[in-house]
Amino acid sequence: MYETVKVSEFPTLRLLNLVNEVFEDYPLHVEWDLFSFNQDVRENSISLSDSYVFLKDDRPVGFILCCVRRSRGRIDSMGVIKEERGKGLGGKMLSFALDVLRNRGVSSVVLEVLASQEEVVKFYSKFGFRVTRRLVSMIKNVPNPRPSIRFLKTERESIHKSALEAMVRLSRRPNWQREPLTLLLSGDRYKMARVGQRLAGYVVWGKGEENAFIVDCSPINDESIYAELLEQAVNYVCQVEERSVCFVGNVPEDDPLYRAAEQAGFQPLFEQYEMLLQL
Ligand SMILES: CC(C)(COP(=O)(O)OP(=O)(O)OC[C@H]1O[C@@H](n2cnc3c(N)ncnc32)[C@H](O)[C@@H]1OP(=O)(O)O)[C@@H](O)C(=O)NCCC(=O)NCCS
């Protein structure tokens, strides 16, 4: 009844129309254009040849986008157009993608889901996915940003190296979207800077229309300065970007960045669950 086409063989603009239609009624704003889609593909290791569009009578009605990093997989996003939901297609797409990933040598699959979407959490649970941790998105007002230390803009290869070091030394547990590899693959999408001496660390950030956002921030070897470094980084990025609100998305509750964000005065905005399936 459904025809399956690899995303790598499907016109990208048609895919984006489908994705944007599916997420029209989603609680978070999702709107991909060609540029942001290509950035997400590269940065999150979305494998277009392991991702699929499902067609019914030649009409695209569902999609599933999968990421692969060696033996680790991730469902980046999936969805079914409104009038086709609840008829079994979502389940078919997920089983299909999990088979593809299994055959590709993937042994674990991770995904993120909004904690408020209980139906969707249940949907993934039926396939064996289990909630492993909360990812908290947080916000802080910075009405008068003024850092008191110097940040130096740095290229991503050096930030990647620091992020790898920080991961080991601080026992960091980053989620997929802030893994050191993600930072390395992000091209020139984000800005990156480092600090030396006592507050040795780095910050990776971007800006939206209304706020600056921190992709990642970490000391390199001293966890005790985390909150202080983050506080300085927030002031720095808000000053550089001329924003008075700073956002940090999907912070894992068991990563030291989470405690630092709380200590630096960030307030929770919404929560996602990270769910994991061992194949
Ligand atoms: C989640 C989603 C992909 C499920 O696809 P689907 O085709 O409706 O799924 P199925 O018909 O195979 O299974 C339906 C199950 O999903 C759950 N579900 C979640 N959202 C649903 C919705 N909006 N409509 C119907 N069922 C939904 C139901 O609990 C249902 O369980 P049941 O079989 O015990 O009744 C689809 O609802 C969707 O595209 N939602 C919007 C986008 C989204 O939330 N994507 C997931 C996060 S990236």
UniProtKB/TrEMBL annotation:
- The source organism is Pseudothermotoga hypogea DSM 11164 = NBRC 106472
Could you tell me which Gene3D superfamilies the record lists for this protein?
Answer: 3.40.630.30
Q: Which UniProt keywords apply?
A: Acyltransferase, Transferase
Organism ancestry: Bacteria, Thermotogati, Thermotogota, Thermotogae, Thermotogales
Q: What is this protein called?
A: GCN5 family acetyltransferase
Location of the N-acetyltransferase domain: 5-143
Q: Does the keyword Cell membrane apply?
A: no
Q: Which residues form the signal peptide?
A: none
Question: Which domain of life, per UniProt?
Answer: Bacteria
The answer to whether the entry has keyword Acyltransferase is yes
- CDD domains from the entry? NAT_SF
